[in-house]
Every structure is written in C-alpha cells, then in structure tokens.
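To whoever is covering the structure queue this week,

Two jobs came back overnight. Logging them here so there's a record in the thread.

Job A:
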Amino acid sequence: MAKLCYSIADQNVATTKSMGIYNCSVQLARGLSERMEGGNLTVLSNRTISPNLNLSGNARLEEYDQAISGKVGRILWDQWGVYQKAKATGHPWLFLPKGFCSFSVRPPMRVAAYVHDVMGDYYRQRYPGFWPKWESFYFTRSLAATFRHARVIFTNTEFSKGEMTAMAARMGLPLRKVVVAGYGFNRPAANPVQKENRVVLFASQWPHKRTDIALNFLDHWLRESNYEGIIDCIGILSPQMKKPSGPNWNWIGRVPPAQGRDMMRRARAIVYVSEYEGFGMPPVEAITEGTCPVFSDIPPLREVMDGAGHAFANDSKKSFTHAMEAALSTSTETISAWSERLSQRHDWRTVTEKILPEISD
C-alpha cells in the first residue's frame, strides 16, 4: 500500500518555465488522489495552485507559500523545507513531480521523482551560456542529486529514459531505477464547437522551440498557398525575433491553459516546432480536442504520436507545406480515430498503475 507525500508547493502558473510540467504535476496529483486510500496521500501545495488541483476526498492538502516567495524562498524550500514538511507528514515516500532533489542534505525518507527531460544538459551542449551560470549550476546539481538519492525515477518516454541514462553515464552517477510511466490526458467533455479558419502556433522564447523555423515556414506557406485565415501566435517571443507582417498574423502572447485549449479546439490546425523534447504535449492535446497537429519530426514526438497527426522535417519548407496542406484536409473521422487511440495510449489511470507499485511498502 502506497503512503505518499507529493510536493507541488514550488509551482506557480504565473512564473513557470514549462506549462507542460505544471499541467502534468497538477493532473498527476489528481490522478493519484483518485487511486489512493484515505489518509495515505498528503499534497504540499500553495495558494496559487490549490484551487486548480480538484483532488478527491482521499487526499490531505497542506499549503506552504514560502516556496513561491522569490528565489531565496524557493532555494530554502528545495534544499531543506520540502524534506522537513514531508517528514512531518509521517509518510515513508516523498514524490517530487519536477524531478529535483536537494543537493545540500540527504533525504530523510524514500524519494521518487518524475524527471521530464534533461533539458539543462542539452542546453549546456547546444546553447552554452543561454542560462545564467548560477541557474545552470543549481539545476545541474539538483538533477545529479536526484540520480544519487531517488529510489525510483519516473519519466515520460523511452527517449527521455535513454537521455537520462546517457547523462548519468557521462557524469559517473548511479541510476537505481528508471520507469517509463508516460503522461496522461484528460478527455474533454463532448462539447463540439464550430471550427474557425484559424491556425494556432505555439511560440516560445526558448531557442530549442525553434520559433524562428515556425515563423519562416509559415510565412513561406502563406505566400505560396491560398489560405485566407488567421494564424494565432500564442506564447512569449524573444524580443530579437523578427515577426512576419501581414493581415494573417495575430500576435497574442501568453494565455492561461483554459484559453489555450479553447483556441486549440476552435482552430483547424496547430503548429508545434521543436528540435528537442522529453515528450511534447500540445500535439496530443490538439488531437484530443478534435484539431489536427503539424509538428517537428523528432524522436520523442514520433514515439508519442504513434503515427497520428502530420510531421515535417525542420530543414524542409517543402515538408512543412505538405504537412500543413494534409492537416487542413484531414477528416473529422480520422482525427476522432486518432483521438481514441492516443487517449487510450496516454491515460492517467495507466500512468498511476505504473507508479503506485513502485512506491508501495
């Protein structure tokens, strides 16, 4: 029987660097609360995230706002606070859904961590100097502590497991056990909406997201096609990023998760460009909302999508154009079939069934 303290107190939707990790952390907490017996799950939360958790009655909720009170508060929480509060719950396990252990002290209980990717390691190799040195140092040390101290590490794809294994080998660090638990997606309510002649672009200021490729390829496609609709660009662009001009472009910026899902639901297609991911949620989310995704043809997305949607090569405008035209002509019936397959493949119940046996006494 699993008895678990789950810490999400250090997360805040307004400041998160990854909406994917935030959404996964919230939904996994909810999924665990539905599967665990009363009194066996305590969730450490904060005032910003508690209203979004919607935990079942089986979970106990404790709020600690110091974890989001600034950099100093976050460090104190990461390095000492979370262990102290988790120990006080009396549970033998602490679950860290962001995957980072303290490197200052050893955990006084068994730790399980969900490591979503090794993005910091990728940036050190591909984009050295992009992150401040202190931040790179901090999270590298924290992930190394996870490799040393976690009894079990969960992750999202076989690709991520391989990346972790390779990183640990390069650093001479142990990995006790890595389990590919996957991600889940909540099925939306059956509430069909009228499609609008819009394409949603997921943009980002992070270099690996390759928004430069997305803007270049979309601008080329607009000039070569007869598309008369709107491209809604959501996300934060780098100030140095040159925006294409023209009436088709709608620059929105960051939006709350619910608004993003609604925009996705009404669009005819979404565009998701990246050169590196652990998983890559938006293409799956789009299909579950009845919208066809166009996405980069990279290993983790191939693994996740399992043949659904339309992939393109990041170095080929022709490939992108073909994917866009295919997406806009994909039938509702095809997308529905994809949705059913992916909903079964990426399901929170399946995820928790892989997690709970690993953390049971």
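Job B:
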Amino acid sequence: MLTASPAMAAPLHTAAAVRSAPVIDPTAVVQLSDPGVQLTAPVDGRLRGDGSALVVTGAALTNRAGVGGQAVSAGAGRHLIVFAFRQVAPQPSQPSPPQADLALVAAGQRRSIDLAGLSGNGPWNFAAAIPASMTDVDLELSAAGYSQDFNLMTLTRVGPSPTALYRDPDNFEEVDTDNSTVGVAATSGPPAGNSYQLEVGAATTTIGW
C-alpha cells in the first residue's frame, strides 16, 4: 500500500534538477520516459476488460518525478502519483474486440490516457498531481459499457472482478485448442425412431467476456 509523506519515493535525479522541475498541470496525466523514482510493484497488477489486458507494474507517491527536461513537481498541497503499466497483446479473436478506454480517476475527475497513441506493449510511465490528502486514485479500464478499476494507492483491484477475465494468467481470454469431442445421446423423430450417439467436437474453446 502506498502512503503519503513521509513515506514517499526518493527521487533518483539530482538536487539541481529537482529545484528546476516545473509544476505539473493538476488536470493532466503526463507520460515520462523515466519515472525518476522507484516504483512499488503490486502483488497482482492485472487489469482487464472486454478485449483488453493491462498489467500495472508499479506506482509511487512523490513530490517530483521524471529526469532531465521531463522532470515535473507536484505543487503546493499536492503529491505526484507516478505509475507504470504494460499492455498484453490480445490473442486472435472474432469478432474484433471493442476499443478500450483508460482513465485516471481522482476525486471524481476523469483524466483520459490515450492507449491508441502508445507504441509497443510498454511498460509506459505516467505522472499526475493529486491533493495531498487523497487516498483513492483509480486507473479505470472501460470497454463495451463495463469497467474495471485498480487503486494506485492500495495497489489492488477494486469492485467486481469476473472470474472469466482473470482465469488465464496472461490474457483476458482463455483459449483451449485440444480439439475435444463429447458424445451426445440423440433420437431421430418425430415420430420416435432410432437412438444413436452424436459426436460433437470443438477445435477451439474460448472463455472470456
């Protein structure tokens, strides 16, 4: 669990860089090449929706983050929540999954993070300013009218976590390709006729949203 001051992550950049770091826009979420602080990894950082699978790889509370020209500071009465996540490449699926939306939710305010604008699968680092007294900051993944939330302060998922989405350790869907078959008793008719065994097979079975 992350806690506010004094248990903040120690900046990795120099004191001179810290003093010159500009104050971050309190309504923004900025991407950083280097978080500049040590992030705490969650026990289970998976965050999944319909057609999407993310993994929160770490988070930290600090007053300043980033390095060099990307260094930012929180401003008076605020902390920075610094976090990182990666995206799990989806398995082939038909039909195509819906476009997922990702947002940082703090004090009822949603700050969008453009997943489509990120290159590769990450991990990517981000920072946002939050009130120093805040205890709940969620990363929310939404698709097809359904949302999953991950609390960046407690490093845990919050709300319902459907078993189907988290059954597979690596993806939001579990795909079985063992070409299984099952016998089903059947009778021809009407009128009543001969009984026989019908073999039903499946090349691939997918368990998901």
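Note for Job B: The longest helix spans residues 15-20.

Please reply-all if you pick these up so we don't duplicate work.
Q.
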